[in-house]
Amino acid sequence: MGEFADKLAAKPLFYQRAYLGSLLPNYVKSANLEKYYQKLTNFNFLMAKIQHPEFGVQTLIDDFNLVDDSESVTHPEYNPEKAKALNLIQAVLWRSADILDGDKTQLAGQLLGRLLHFNIPPIQAMLEVAKQWKAAPWFCPLTPCLTPPRRGLLRTLEGHSNSVNAVAVTEDGKRAISGSKDNTLKVWDLTTGKEEFSLKGHSQWVYAVAITEDGKRAISGSKDNTLKVWDLTSGEEQFTFKGHSDWVNAVAITADGKLAISGSSDKTLKVWDLTTGKEEFTLTGHSNSVYAVAVTGDGKRAISGSSDNTLKVWNLTRGKEEFTLQGHSDSVYGVAVTADANRAISGSDDNTIKVWDLTTRKELFTLEGHSKSVYGVAVTADGKRAISGSDDDCIKVWDLTTRKEEFTLKGHSNSVNAVAVTADGKRAISGSWDRTLKVWDLTTEKEQFTLTGHRKSVSAFAVTVDGKRAISGSWDTTLKVWDLTTRKEEFTLTGHKSSVYAVAVTEDGKRAISGSWDRTLKVWDLTTRKEEFTLRGHTYSVNAVAVTADGKRAISGSDDDCIKVWDLITGKEEFTLEGHSKSVYAVALTADGKRALSGSSDKTIKVWDLTTRKELCTLKGHSQLLKAAAVTADGKRAISGSDDNILQIWDLTAKELLPLHGHRNLVKAIAVTADRKWAISGSTDKTLKVWDLATGNVIANFTCENQIASCAIAPDGVTIVAGDTSGNVYFLLLEGITEYLEKGMV
């Protein structure tokens, strides 16, 4: 566990409980703020508490709430710098809680990756101690590679098996309820990030959800044309509303919890009595599907949005339309109303958000910034901010006073269908086609940081033999050359017309070879920083490339199902290897350059003799397409990664040796250390893993910001570079390996 944790574990259990559980409350009771600050910026204390079976991450997060900054500012020991440090550490713990619940060894990596930005003495002192942690192998970030706390993602909620179409949050901000295309609703605890239970009963997709103000009931609308009322205490269905003749797309509830208003593809809205369980009346007037509905705080009005491009304001007392708001040029998918009932905010398929004055019945202004349809909008209780979710995968936060965008929240990998905001305005919850909900921190912070990387997915990495440089290839069509000592970009290589999918570097470090969606390979001079020549011959995308140790040949794999061998002296194709029945996504070479391996979406690996130009054998075992392959330096074993989430270790006599299970999603990248002891894999589950090739065990994990698309290892065997699908570049050091080996734990 670590020296400090080991010493603590040697103490009697009552002492451990008292030390970890009572110490901080005692400091608070005695008004000893200085001691309180010291403990919560002490890495060893943090690690001991999350590792102890009776406490854990959530208990530690709660420790940071023992002192209220607003109340302690007048205390003689109040230190704003230390108070800020505590806020930042707590924010990291909150954001990393789901990671740390599963893997305590990632505490140091998460703190370093998110806090290296902050030049605050208590933070930096804590990080220096964290760097020395050696109790288990772990990835030490060398640069601030993870999103820092504040204004960003706090937590991802995973559990739905299909698109999340709707989300609502309770008034106290402790629970969220989501509706999905998997026909279910899920109730989430926003404190722990855990699913509490599922609500099942709809026979079709759930498109809408709302919660009563007391948080006791939820109402859902579905493609099965019904609404259901759920008891959030028991998790049971109370009753079903039937009456719509088409999909129910939207639902809202009056503040007193007595009425529900639903909008449907049958072009109507219906008002339901939640006490009697009966329909009160129907609102007609829209000429097309109703996709959104909101209700004013006083319960007197409802505002609806429709694919007839309009909003309508309805009088719920008289059951009649009051007026229509026109201005959008396409369907209205989202509607929210301010607490004072004076303004409505709408989101549309025309990519804009409009703010309307419900008194004058006119448009006040338009907010532009999204590049695609706006599907969801929410407004804070004070009416100062609007939050929008879009088909461009982003959430935007808008200042309704200045009428400008404040900032953009990125993290979803697909359309954002729904957004909700907590009553205190500090957090937003979004639901997406990527099947997740995300919890966002909306608090503002002056510091603005940019993570190192490309503008789009980093699909390939290679490291020079001397370990001084790394070369990355990206979907942004460029290659970047990085100094591994300074971890800074040296220069960018441009020339490809489309995404770069593959990169290799010659052993002398003077040339790089890249493969692209534009069907070409390019050879680059890393000394002059210029393109030497282009290799043409593939008829589809070039997905993989490798280069022989002597630098004379390159081998490429393509969507045209072929492997081509190129002469890097003449710049011409030597020959083509055919045999795969589908796209080739991976190629690797033995150290002597005599054999090549290729991995394909036909689920096989083929081993080729480059002298005879013939296939030696085919390795079968994966159940899905192969995206990654590597070969050990002695040429005796190969490691493959597949969309079946598994890595396989093979000997090259066609015998399957060992399947490696551990990733929860597709394996996209593999690299092997020169000493043949470790393999590094990257997956769309956002993790990098280190595998002991002798035992097949995972010995270290690192959870990144987004899906991993590429990785490589420097010759020292401990420096790792990786890239994710959002363009981030990670420079990591594998720590604790020596100590781990000495303890005989491998």
Tags for this entry?
746 residues; four-stranded antiparallel β-sheet; 46% strand; 14% helix; 56 strands
Give a description of the structure.
By secondary structure, the protein is mainly beta. Helices cover 14% and strands 46% of the residues. The strands form 14 sheets. The protein has a 4-stranded antiparallel beta sheet with strand order 1-56-55-54. A 4-stranded antiparallel beta sheet has the order 2-29-28-27. α5 runs antiparallel to α7 (80-102). The relative contact order is 0.07. The mean pLDDT is 92.
**End-to-end CA span:** 16 Å
If helices are DSSP runs of H or I spanning 4 or more residues, what is the number of helices? 10
Mean pLDDT: 92
The radius of gyration is 29 Å
Strand order of the largest sheet: 1-56-55-54
Oligomer: single chain
Poorly predicted ranges? none
Strand content: over 45%
For the biggest sheet, the summary is:
4 strands, antiparallel
Task: Record the SSE blueprint.
Elements: H1 3-9, H2 13-29, H3 33-40, H4 43-51, H5 57-63, H6 69-72, H7 80-102, H8 107-115, H9 121-131, E1 138-141, E2 152-158, E3 164-169, E4 175-180, E5 184-189, E6 194-200, E7 206-211, E8 217-222, E9 226-231, E10 236-242, E11 248-253, E12 259-264, E13 268-273, E14 278-284, E15 290-295, E16 301-306, E17 310-315, E18 320-326, E19 332-337, E20 343-348, E21 352-357, E22 362-368, E23 374-379, E24 385-390, E25 394-399, E26 404-410, E27 416-421, E28 427-432, E29 436-441, E30 458-463, E31 469-474, E32 479-483, E33 488-493, E34 500-505, E35 511-516, E36 520-525, E37 530-536, E38 542-547, E39 553-558, E40 562-567, E41 572-578, E42 584-589, E43 595-600, E44 604-609, E45 614-620, E46 626-631, E47 637-642, E48 647-651, E49 656-660, E50 667-672, E51 678-683, E52 687-692, E53 698-703, E54 708-713, E55 719-724, E56 729-735, H10 737-742
Antiparallel strand pairs: 1-56, 2-29, 3-4, 4-5, 5-6, 7-8, 8-9, 9-10, 11-12, 12-13, 13-14, 15-16, 16-17, 17-18, 19-20, 20-21, 21-22, 23-24, 24-25, 25-26, 27-28, 28-29, 30-31, 31-32, 32-33, 34-35, 35-36, 36-37, 38-39, 39-40, 40-41, 42-43, 43-44, 44-45, 46-47, 47-48, 48-49, 50-51, 51-52, 52-53, ...
